[in-house]
Automatic annotation (TrEMBL):
Signal peptide: none annotated. Pfam families: Tcf25 (PF04910). Residues 86-100, 108-129 have a biased composition (Basic and acidic residues). Residues 1-13, 60-69, 130-140 have a biased composition (Basic residues). PANTHER family: NULP1-RELATED, RIBOSOME QUALITY CONTROL COMPLEX SUBUNIT TCF25. This is Transcription factor 25 (basic helix-loop-helix). GO terms for cellular component: RQC complex. Residues 29-43 have a biased composition (Acidic residues). Coiled coil: none annotated. Residues 1-149 are annotated as: Disordered. It comes from Poecilia reticulata. Residues 19-28, 45-59 have a biased composition (Low complexity).
Length: 687
């Protein structure tokens, strides 16, 4: 065993020796001087023999100087600080003249110590020398690692710049319209987490509680912004979804999701499960593919219908986590420059997952977080707005009290989107001005200005959309005045005379935002504005007739994205106003009202005949009579000749069935029971 190991076992390692008062003296003790002399004699012998190189002599002189300096402390904490800063004080490029002066100064000592102390001194010096070498190596390796990391980051930055330049894109360059949209619809990562809003309401301790992550038995997942993985979820594996950058134009990146071959096969199985109308088939598919997006969305709707809100929300969060793990490195949720085309079926599931998650957050009491997701959906395709988020964003801004943001959005987008022609913006902006006028920290002049703007905007909204008032008062359980209900401008005649598209927008707004108008102050303000509107109507102002002509011309038919939004909102007052071409066609929860000009990347193969186990009882009965009978055999024919041939075969099968039924009925014989003479029969009994 080495001497250093023996000293470590005895507890004599540096910094572990027992300290007494003699060691804390200001001057040098005789023992310290003797130890210094031993070191000086070793230096003299080394220099005389010229065996060690100059670097060794310098290092040994530094060792003795350091050991001597370490004893001259009156405070033990200075010794600890000196040991920590040892590498800073000792530099490899010291002045050789200082080393010579220190050597001559040390040669003046004359006392000699015994051999045991000499051996201990040599062992400690060798240990210190080894430690210094290790420290030097560490500093060298850390400096080299920093250089390598710096070079790697520079290379990554250069690579990204080259990619952007090759695509003709710069993340900093944006056109005027996009910069305006970023200023209004800017998304922040921290606002995508509902816990941020809940902590602001109830505090961190009430929100987190026992949900804080434990260090033991902790599963490490990928860091995501939208959802956090739960321990109850199945183990994540790549479901087969990836994201690709299609093109970059005018500072905007256009991405799309892609499905590999395995995922396409699972998608075909999912479509078969949906057509079977049995949710158990979707559950069985999810057991094999726990992160299949469309299955999660469809099963979430089933759980929500069965009032299992917790499971429905959990399935949507799992779908979002699967999407976020497939993001492209350049795809950003907050920049506003990353867009997805809704015409591609692979991208629609991401829109729907975000929308459903947003609605769960709004019902959970997190309107600010729901607003952030609404802005995110709108930024994915602001020009087309496939889910028509402009019909919802005003409600969420009012719920989260983002009044100035709503007015800024109305001001910026009115020029190119005509937001004043939507009933929700016409009434919500007036309500924003009213709430701003009611704030306590506003100057009286500013409050009066906001109130005048609120009165003006509300009167204009009532003149343009008179059909909003009576349904709104009905849902607010307010009995209108007889002069209002009997007037032709607000009465039943105005309800019946609305164009179909305007009736749909009006019912949607009233059914969604009636709770915001129930406040007493808001209702009094509404009453004053209604009286003023009736006065202007009776005065026959030119604006009244002008708005009536606009209503007849502009709201004849609603676009497809508005119908899609009404279906997703599930507001009864609005869904009852949908046209027949929407209500008569089947609507799937995983893809409601797909665009007519969809961009199809892969098609579903011809469906095979379904086995007898999935058929109904009536189908099994007909199959038992006619083995060639197939209920779904002629439903998927698209060619006219095949349809005609299928009709002929169906007629033949029906004729054969009728012949078989006729033969069966003809062969039925009813036998009379044998008559026996009954001796106890009454003669007067009727036969």
């Amino acid at each position: 065993m080495s001497t250093r190991a023996l000293r470590r076992l005895k507890g004599k390692q540096r910094g572990q020796e027992a300290l007494d008062l003699g060691d804390l003296s200001l001057g040098d003790s005789p023992e310290e001087q003797a130890e210094a002399e031993v070191g000086e004699e070793q230096l003299d012998t080394a220099n005389a023999a010229n065996v060690s190189p100059p670097s060794n002599s310098k290092s040994s002189s530094r060792k003795t100087k350091k050991n001597k300096a370490q004893k001259n402390f009156s405070n033990i904490y200075e010794l600890i600080g000196d040991a920590e800063n040892e590498s800073d004080r000792v530099s490899p490029d010291e002045d050789p003249e200082k080393n010579k002066a220190s050597g001559t100064r040390k040669n003046n000592n004359k006392d000699v110590e015994n051999q045991d102390q000499k051996h201990d001194e040599e062992s400690t010096k060798s240990g210190d020398r080894a430690k210094k070498k290790k420290k030097k190596k560490k500093t060298k390796t850390t400096s080299e690692d920093e250089q390598l990391n710096g070079a790697a980051t520079e290379n990554i930055d250069l690579l990204l710049e080259n990619v952007e330049l090759s695509n003709g894109v710069s993340l900093q360059s944006e056109d005027c319209g996009c910069s305006v949209r970023r200023s209004v619809l800017h998304v922040e990562h921290r606002n995508l987490n509902p816990e941020t809003e809940l902590k602001r309401y109830f505090g961190a301790r009430a929100v987190l509680g026992d949900q804080r992550p434990r260090q033991r038995n902790r599963h490490f997942h990928r860091s995501t912004w939208m959802t956090s993985p739960k321990e109850s979820w199945p183990r994540f594996s790549r479901p087969g979804i990836s994201m690709t950058l299609l093109e970059s134009k005018n500072g905007v990146h256009y991405f799309t999701f892609e499905h590999n071959r395995d995922y396409q096969q699972v998608q075909f199985k999912f479509l078969d499960a949906v057509e079977s109308m049995d949710p158990n088939n979707i559950v069985a598919l999810l057991q094999l593919n726990p992160y299949h997006i469309d299955s999660l969305l469809q099963l979430s709707d089933v759980c929500r219908i069965q009032e299992d809100q917790e499971m429905a929300r959990d399935l949507i969060e799992r779908a979002l986590y699967s999407f976020e793990c497939a993001f492209h490195p350049l795809f950003s949720l907050t920049s506003g420059t990353s867009q997805l085309d809704y015409l591609r079926p692979e991208n629609r599931a991401f829109y729907l997952a975000l929308y459903k998650h947003m609605m769960f957050l709004e019902k959970r009491g997190c309107p600010r977080t729901a607003l952030e997701y609404c802005k995110l959906i709108l930024c994915l395709d602001p020009d087309s707005d496939p889910l028509c988020m402009l019909l919802l964003i005003d409600f969420l801004m009012l719920r989260s009290r983002e009044y100035k943001s709503l007015l800024q959005l109305y001001q910026d987008w009115e020029e190119h989107r005509n937001l004043s022609q939507l009933p929700n913006f016409a009434f919500s902006c007036a309500l924003c001005h009213f709430h701003l006028s009611q704030q306590e920290d506003v100057d009286p002049e500013e409050s009066d200005k906001q109130r005048r703007q609120a009165d003006q905007m509300l009167q204009s909204a009532l003149i343009m959309f008179p059909g909003v008032l009576m349904p709104l008062l009905d849902l607010c359980t307010v009995q209108p005045d007889s002069t209002v209900s009997s007037h032709s401008f607000f009465g039943p005649k105005s309800q019946r005379g609305q164009p179909p598209a305007l009736a749909e927008l009006t019912a949607l707004y009233v059914g969604r935002t009636y709770s915001l108008w129930k406040e007493a102050a808001v209702m009094l303000w509404l009453e004053e504005s209604v009286k003023e509107v009736l006065r202007r109507v009776d005065a026959k102002e030119a604006l009244i007739e002008d708005c009536q002509n606009k209503r007849k011309e502009r709201y004849q038919s609603a676009p497809r994205n508005i119908h899609r939004h009404v279906l997703l909102s599930e507001i009864k007052e609005a869904t009852s106003t949908l046209p027949l071409e929407v209500t008569t066609q089947p609507v799937m929860g995983f893809d409601p009202l797909p665009p007519l000009d969809s961009v199809i990347s892969y098609t579903r193969p011809e469906r095979q005949h379904v086995g007898a186990s999935n058929e109904s009882t009536l189908s099994l009965f007909f199959r038992s009579l006619l083995p060639n009978f197939n209920l779904q055999g002629g439903l998927r024919q698209e060619d006219d000749m095949e349809v005609a041939r299928a009709g002929q075969e169906l007629n033949q099968e029906v004729n054969r069935l009728m012949v078989a039924m006729r033969d069966m009925l003809a062969n039925i014989r009813f036998q009379e029971p044998p008559r026996e003479d009954n001796p106890y029969r009454d003669e007067d009994e009727w036969d």
